[in-house]
Amino acid sequence: MWPRPPSAPPTNVSGRTSDPTLLGLLATGLIDLMMPPVCLSCREPLGSRDALCAQCWAEVDFISTPRCDRLGIALPYAAGDIMVSAAAAARPPRYARARAVGHYRGTLQRLIHGFKFRDHHDVRRLFGCWLHQAGNELFAGADLLVPVPLSRMRLLQRRFNQAAILARELSQRSRLPVRTQGLVRTRWTERQVGLTAEQRRLNVRGAFRVPARELPHIRGRRVILIDDVITTGATAEACTKALQTAGAAEVDVLAVALVSEPLRVTT
Ligand SMILES: [Zn+2]
How far is the CA of 59 from the centre of ligand 1 (A)? Predict the structure, then answer.
């Protein structure tokens, strides 16, 4: 059962896709001998790779049903098959549906921080596995994945776009193609950290576009936008607007984590 039960053993959280051949098993054994597997969060020794220890697993705040069909936020109780939160009803997002693996806190926050700022890329397979499960209902009818782009300057600083890494991992599992250049930044934007919801919206407004060479791949297609964290939804909104301007038929959003209330309801 997913996303929990809390008692699930750590082996259930592995994102590994193993090679069952003799050569694959030998290679795996050799790698384990040279680099013993550790918990992706606290780095304690573990029996398997691409996994979390029981303590860190228990501190992942997964989002499961009931949730808002539009914003993907957790709801306190179920009130029908398709539910829309008060926040989504008051201000419907441009995108059709957002989904996230869990809330941006605890283990998930530490894993994302390590992934983005400390080059802990070994978590990408687990994230890919989780995204595949969290986005399950988005894949039917979807045509392609598009990561939220970084500016050239930030790409030079960081050397990688974490959203593009996530999109590639998810592509392996969902079989949906990735257009890593499907969206580009049109200008430098301030980091969103520390900005209010309104400042975030203004900061990224008009900051994305679909390049001319990508238009044939976007026009009329159903796109899943991939990001690491949805905070106020401002970036997802600005990216969705750019994709819709380019003729995308529909845009859904899938992220590893979601910043929840009270910040969320201020968007
Ligand atoms: Zn741990």
Answer: 9
- Do the beta carbons of residue 44 and residue 38 sit within 8 Å? yes
Question: Is the previous residue joined to 177 through a cis bond, with omega within 30 degrees of 0?
Answer: no
Question: Which residue range forms the structural domain that includes residue 120?
Answer: 60-266
Q: Are residues 22 and 82 in the same domain?
A: no
* Contact assessment for residue 231 and residue 171, using Cβ atoms and an 8 Å cutoff: no
**C-alpha of residue 36 to centroid of ligand 1, in Å:** 14
How far is the centre of ligand 1, averaged over its atoms, from the C-alpha of 25 (Å)? 25
Give the Å distance between the CA of 32 and the centre of ligand 1: 18
The rounded Å distance from CA 38 to ligand 1 centre is 8
Tokens of 25: 């098993």
A 10 A CB-CB count for 246 gives 22
Q: Specify whether 177 is located in the same domain as 131.
A: yes
Compute the distance from residue 108 Cα to the ligand 1 centre, in Å: 11
- pLDDT of 3: 39
Encode pLDDT of 21-69 as tens digits. Answer: 777 777 766 666 677 899 999 999 998 889 999 999 999 999 998 999 9
Closest CA to 39 of 48, 49, 52, 57: 52
What 3-state DSSP class applies to 224?
strand
Q: What is the pTM of this model?
A: 0.85
